[in-house]
Amino acid sequence: METIVIIGAGASGLACMNELVKTNKYNIIVLEQSNKAARKILASGNGRCNVSNLNMDIKYYNHQDPLIEKLIKEFDVVNFFKQLSLKLRYEKNLVYPYSLSSLSAKNALMKNMDNVSYIDNCEVLAIKKAKTYEIITTNGHYQADKIVIATGSPASHLSGQNNLKMLEKMHISMIPFTPSLVQVKTNPVFKVLKGQRVKGIAMLYDQNQLIEKQTGEIMFTDYGLSGICIMQLSRYLDHLKNPKLILNLLPDIEKEEFQHYGLEGFFHEKIVQIFKEKNIDPRCLEFKIIDTMSIEKAQVCHGGVSLKEVDENLQLKKYPGIYVCGEALDVDGDCGGYNLHFAFASGVHVAKSIKK
Ligand SMILES: Cc1cc2nc3c(=O)[nH]c(=O)nc-3n(C[C@H](O)[C@H](O)[C@H](O)COP(=O)(O)OP(=O)(O)OC[C@H]3O[C@@H](n4cnc5c(N)ncnc54)[C@H](O)[C@@H]3O)c2cc1C
Fold it and tell me: Which residues are in the RsdA/BaiN/AoA(So)-like Rossmann fold-like domain (predicted)?
């Protein structure tokens, strides 16, 4: 019987495990560095776990790669969870467990854990190629015929910080992890408005050129700005020289209407006070972006194993029998279920490749 070791009991590793256990052909071992599986799943979607998006398109990901496009389009998230007896529901295009609880998603993904050997508190440090593969961990050595690297990224630190350490000495090209979907530090900062939420359009500029705009919620913080549309725009910051944000907090209000109601007619009194004090026009509020917050605050990371290193089975070209899925690969997407969708889709794809 072949031994398959899955490294990482998160979204992609558990998806892979659930597909592999359908046949009784393998001895499956899941190694997890922390004492809890699926920590990011539990934290996802503010505890509601936004598992996917009905509007699935490669344009919401960082690479317009044909293989990734095929994977995300072919994966049927409803059927995947149906097989795990979890009913899903939709809020506009966002897909959630029917219970709106991330715990339901975790429990469904963990259903088949009794059919595998699960070892937690076991961080994988290195992999050595011998006749089979030898896996060196903080908790002993393991032999594997095939290995699935499903270790995620260091975003939020909920999945550890040594996600790809085991590949360091294996001459695999990796894009360094940097924060994506993250809050931004700005100038000016409105500390007294910390926690205040507004709705509007946020436009990201670099050297006076519009890079991207997003409509939605914006939150003032004591370091700068947060909120879903700011996090979405943070994905474009990597290569910008002089990024700035312009907010229009009254995009649907005519000039006459604004004059009639005044600031008080639209905003919380704290906001009114600051805007008056600083003579700020809410239709054109400008912020220089100084930096992003750290990886620890990010929901997702750019970076990971370069797509050039894997074949169409997501198998390392240099190491046949080692597969990579989920955020450990250099694939990341927008807010709205795109990252979990890719984690599940790629985990299942790897399992199907192994079973071929
Ligand atoms: C706060 C928050 C909210 C989010 N909300 C959403 C959302 O609503 N929708 C969405 O689509 N995405 C969301 N995401 C992103 C999503 O959770 C991740 O993209 C997804 O979990 C990635 O799956 P993965 O399997 O690649 O990695 P993970 O789910 O992070 O799993 C990796 C696993 O590997 C383990 N591991 C790491 N290194 C080692 C090692 N060396 N040895 C052994 N084990 C190791 C980790 O402990 C972890 O259990 C959110 C992320 C955060 C942080």
Answer: 3-352
The response to whether residue 126 sits with its C-beta less than 6 Å from ligand 1 reads no
State pLDDT tens for residues 242-263.
Answer: 999 999 999 999 999 999 999 9
Read off the tokens for 74: 């072919």
Q: pLDDT above 70 covers what percent of the chain?
A: 100
DSSP 344: H
- Band (238; pLDDT cuts 50, 70, 90): confident
Answer yes or no: is the C-beta of 332 below 6 A from any ligand 1 atom. Answer: no
Query: What domains are defined for the chain?
Result: 2-179+296-355 (3.50.50.60), 184-292 (2.40.30)
- Identify the residue whose C-alpha is closest to ligand 1 atom 9: 337
ipTM score of the complex? Answer: 0.99
CA 332 to centroid of ligand 1, rounded, Å:
12
> How far is Cα 157 from Cα 153, in angstroms, rounded to an integer?
8
Cβ of 137 below 6 Å from ligand 1: no
